[in-house]
Structures are given as C-alpha cells and as structure tokens.
C-alpha cells in the first residue's frame, strides 16, 4: 500500500511538473481540445434527441387517431346514437387538445434545441479555426445545395413539415369536434370544413412564425452592430451611464425590460479588478478594452471590437462569436436586401387578400391597385398598402421596381378599389429626400417588408434616402372620378 501511494504521488508530481513546463500556448491548445471534445459530445446528444422526437411524434399521433377510431366503432356497435356522438365528440376534443398542446410543446423544445445546436456548431468551428484547422468538419460545414419548387432540401425543412403535419392533424380533431358539437352531428361536411380550417390555420401560423423569426434575427444583427460600434469607443467604467448602449444590449438580450439587469451587470464588471475580471473575460483581450488613459488609435481595431463583443456577451448572455459575426457581417447577409419573388405562398396570400378587399373587408390602409399593362394593355391587379404623410396619400413599392411600378409610370394613373368603391387617381413620383420619411413610416407600419430594405426601422430618416431609388414612392393626386 505504501508503495502504491508513493507511486501515485510520484506520478502526480510528474504530471504537475509536466503541466508546469508547458507553455501558455500549449495549455491553451489543450484546453481548447478538451472543450472541442465536450462540444462534439453535446452536438451528438442534441442530434439524438431530434431523431428520437421525429420518430416518436408521427407514431404517437397515428396511434392516438387509431385508438379514437377504435373507441368510436366500439361505441357505435351498441348504444344510443346521440349518446355515442356526444361521447365521441367529447373524447375527440379532449384527445385533440392534449395532442395539440403536447405537439406545440415539443416544437418549442425543438426550436430551442436548434438554437443550442447552432451555437455548438459555431463554437466548434471557432475552436477549429483557433487550432489552425480551417477545413474542419464544422469550420467548413457544407450548406444545403438542393432546392425544389416548394421547399429546400435540408434538416429544418423536413422537421418543420413533420411538426406542421402533426399540428394540422390535431387541429383537425379540435375543429371537427368543435363544429360537430355545435351542429350536434358527425358528417362528411363537418370533416371537410375541419380539414380546410386545419390546413389554413397551420399555413398562416407557420408564415407568421417564419416572419417573426426573420424579423427578430435581423433586429438582433442590427442591435449587435450598433452596440459594438458604441462599445468600441466607450470606456468600461462609463458603460452603465450610456443609456443608448444599455438599451441596445437589453433589447439584444431578448427584452427591453431587462435594462436594469444589464445596467447592474455593467456596473459589476466595471468595479472588478484585473485579477477577478479575467475569471469572466479572456485574459489576452483584457488590455484591449477601451480606457480613458489610452488613445484608441494605438490599439488594433479588430482586437478592440473582439474585446467589446466579449463584454456585450457578458451583458446579454449571447455567444460572443454571434455578436462579432453580426458586427463584422462575416456571413455577408447584412446590408443586402432580400430579392422579391412571387412564390406559391405569396400567390395564395394575395388571392385571399383580393377576395377580402373585393367584399370590403381587410385593413383600412390596404387597397386593390389596378393598372393597365404598358405592353399588352391588359389590366393587372395587386394588393397595396397606402401611407398618409402630411395629409397626402402615398403609394410605396416595398418589393422594388416590380411590374406594377413600370406599368404605373407608363400609365401615369392607377385605380384603387375597396369593396364597391373605386377611384382612379393620377400619380406623381417623389424624389429621394421626399420619399425617405414615407419609406421609414411604411417599414414600421408593414413589418413583413423589412427584409427587403437595408435600413433598419429605427434608423434615422437619412438612412432611407439611399433606399428611395430601390423603392419608388408615388404621391396620389386628386381624384379624377369615383364609381360606386
């Protein structure tokens, strides 16, 4: 026993001595390798969870429907018809509501896993680049390259379809049970209506979620760039006093109501001495934080920005690499407006909006615009949103110079219709300076079009001057005639 204890002590001393003889760079690389191993393990765990959920969800949904159908058949074989119908409807509604809530919960859980999944991939890629492996499995991860007319071939599209199908199935059960309970019967008509309701609701909600996600990501990128731009010139001791910087970090973290929390964190880190600060901050970047007694010109810009990104990360609980990528536009997706394309989903939404507007329903600022084709002379109709500025109604082209813009310029007038009311009005195209405030108001009023603009909604009016050539604005002149 004494020999074993001595041997263990000798080996421990040898390891300690070996560790002491390693350079800082070697110890740093060893720590990175250990973290890389842990990141890969977590990545595999999240992937396994996703596959298990995908395998469980369709099977559980189909089994629940089969069980309900079997129970309905058994009840119909012996029992009063009204009691049987009432029982089946009650069971169907309860089961469908449970399945719907459970599926939404699983979809929410999967969405959060996707966020962690992305962060793990980004962190693994960062480690590979730090270890001089630029062509590693994560650093050079290939993106989806095949796209079909209706969807993109990638993991998230497949997952989205599976969850959407399951939610639509449970919505069908809820709608059929609810409509059946109101009518007091189960019929083919009830099932047909329920199917249409389930498909339409699922489709519209998925579009809304996609739009909200896109808006939030764009907003986060803008806020990250704004916070880094301010933080680079801001000494740490003064960060808590800069209200605009604190507000940007609070909104970046997910809620503008966290202003007090972010401010308290900034105060805490500002009061730490260097020895304690390196427990939260990479030591190699501590001296690159902006300071009062140092000229910013003496520091390398990219290191200052990286140090600022780490500080913002501490204030917002977001990964520093995401903040840095947004501030530097590493992925090239900032400052580039989305290109408009008339997809199947947009055609369907336009068709529904046209049907509503012809009956006089829909938001008051939306009209049907009809203009004569400049080449064929045929009439073309599309929904548009008007903006009022200084008592004048204005027509905005949020998707750029599409066909109706060229046709309107050639015709010099457009026809606006809503319900039975129709008016033909001359149009006057505005210059860049006059268009800027109207474009800013439009982007804030119609959020779904924000991705087609480079300027963010809360940027100053001057930022929208550059948008005017890409998004023509027309002022509507006095009415020429009104028909009813």
How would you explain this protein's 3D organization?
This protein has a six-stranded antiparallel β-barrel. It is flat and about 80 Å long. It has helices at 2-21, 24-77, 81-130, 155-183, 188-232, 243-252, 259-270, 274-277, 283-286, 301-316, 320-328, 344-358, 403-411, 432-445; strands at residues 366-372, 379-389, 392-396, 413-418, 421-429, 473-476, 481-483. The longest helix has 54 residues, at 24-77. The protein is α+β, with helices and mostly antiparallel strands and 484 residues long. It has three domains: 24-142 and 153-186, no CATH class; 219-327, no CATH class; 344-483, Electron Transport, Fmn-binding Protein, Chain A (Pnp Oxidase, Chain A), CATH 2.30.110. It contains 14 helices and seven strands. The model is unreliable at 1-11, 292-299 and 480-484 (pLDDT under 50).
Compose a concise summary of this entry:
The protein is of the alpha+beta class and about 475 residues long. The protein has helices at about 1-20, 25-75, 80-130, 155-185, 190-230, 245-250, 260-270, 275, 285, 300-315, 320-330, 345-360, 405-410, 430-445, and strands spanning about 365-370, 380-390, 390-395, 415-420, 420-430, 475, 480-484.
SSE arrangement:
Layout lengths: L1 H20 L2 H54 L3 H50 L24 H29 L4 H45 L10 H10 L6 H12 L3 H4 L5 H4 L14 H16 L3 H9 L15 H15 L7 E7 L6 E11 L2 E5 L6 H9 L1 E6 L2 E9 L2 H14 L27 E4 L4 E3 L1
Antiparallel strand pairs: 1-2, 1-4, 2-3, 3-6, 4-5, 5-6, 5-7
Helix pairs in contact: 2-3, 2-4, 3-4, 4-5, 5-6, 5-10, 5-11, 6-7, 10-11
